[in-house]
Design brief:
It is a single chain. The chain has a two-stranded antiparallel ribbon with strand order 1-2. The termini are far apart. It is 61% helix and 1% strand.
Amino acid sequence: MGSFLDSINLAFIIAAAVKIVFFSFMVILPMVAYSVYAERRVSAIIQDRVGPNRTGIPLTLFGGKKDIPLAGLIQPLADGLKFFLKEDFTPAHVKKFYYWLAPALVMVPAMMTAAVVPFGSELDLSWLAKFGVEGAWLQKPIKLVIADLNVGPLYIFAIASLGVYGIVLAGWSSNSKYPFLGGVRSTSQMISYEIALGLSIIPVLMIFGDLNLSKIAQYQDKNGWLLLPLWGEGLTFKRLVLWIPVFISFIIFVVAMFAETNRAPFDLPECETELVAGYHTEYSSMKFALFFMGEYAAMIIGSGLAVTLFLGGWSIPWGSQIGLGYVEGATPIWLGLLHIGCFLAKVVCFIIFFIWVRWTLPRFRYDQLMKLGWLVMFELALANVILTAALIVWLPN
C-alpha cells in the first residue's frame, strides 16, 4: 500500500485537476453562456432588431435610483438563474429513468472531448519560487492540454459519437410523437455526417503523420498553418499542391460540423415548423438547459478542433519569425498566456461564423440533407483521401 501511494505523482494529479477546472468551468461553460448571448445579439443585428441590451446590475433592487445596463452582458446569468428557479416538471407519461438520463448523455460527452484539445503551448510557473512555493513540479513547464493523448482525434470522435444516444433516449423516453420523430431524424443525420466528418480529417493526419494534437499545433507554429503555409518552410511546391486537398478537407469538416451539432441550415431534428421543438419538446428547466448547453459545448469543441487542425491552434501568425513562437521548456509565462488568448480568439471567430451562417441560410429539406450527406459529402471526402495519398506518393519527401 505504501509503495502504491509513493508511486502516485501528486503534482501531476493537481496539475490535471487545475487544468480541468480552468478549461471546463472557467473557459467552456462561460463561453457556452456568452455564445447564447452572442447568438441573440448577432441575430438581432442581422434582423435589424435591438436584442437583449438591458440586463445589467440591478441596483434598484438594493435601493439605487437606476440599474447599470452594461449592454445586456448580465443576460446569461439571468437566463441561468431562471432555469434553476423554474419548476422541474416531469410529465406522467414519460419513461422516467431514461428521460432523466438523456440530458446528461448529451452534455457529458461534449465536455469530455475537451480533454485532448490543446488550449495553449505551456505555462512556466517557476516564478512562484520567489514567493516561497517549492516543489519539483515547478521546474518543468505545464503543458496546456488536459490529456496529451497520441490518439487525440480518435478519442474525440469516439466520445462525441456517444452524444447521439442522449438524443435517441430523449426522443424515445418522452413517449410523444414529435420528440420521437426528432430523435429518429437526429440519429440518421448524425450517423450520415459522422462518416464524412471522420474522412475529412484523414488527409490532414496523412500529411502530418501524427495523431497528437499538441504536436500538430507545434508544427504549425514553426512552419505555418495548414490553411496559411506562409512562414517556416514557406509555400514550397509540395505545400502548394497539398493545400488543395487540405482546403477540401476544411470545407467538408465545417459542413459536417454544422450537421453533427444540429445547427441551421441542418437543424431538422428540432425543426420548429414541423416538430414543435423536436427531441426536447417535453423537457423544461435545467434538463432543457442541459440540451442547450450540450449543443453549444459541442460547437465550441468542434471549433477548437477545426482551429487546431487547420488554423494553427494556439499559434500566433508569423509568431516564430517575430519571437512569439513556442520553444519547448523556454516559453515565458506571458507568451504562454498570449497563446491561450490567441486560441480563444480564433475559437470565438469560428463561433461567430457558426452564428452568422445560422441566421443567414434557410433550413434544408430532410431529403436534401440526406442527399447532400450520402451522394456529395461522402464521395467527396473519400476521393479527397485518395487524392492526398496519390500526391504524397508522387511528391518528393
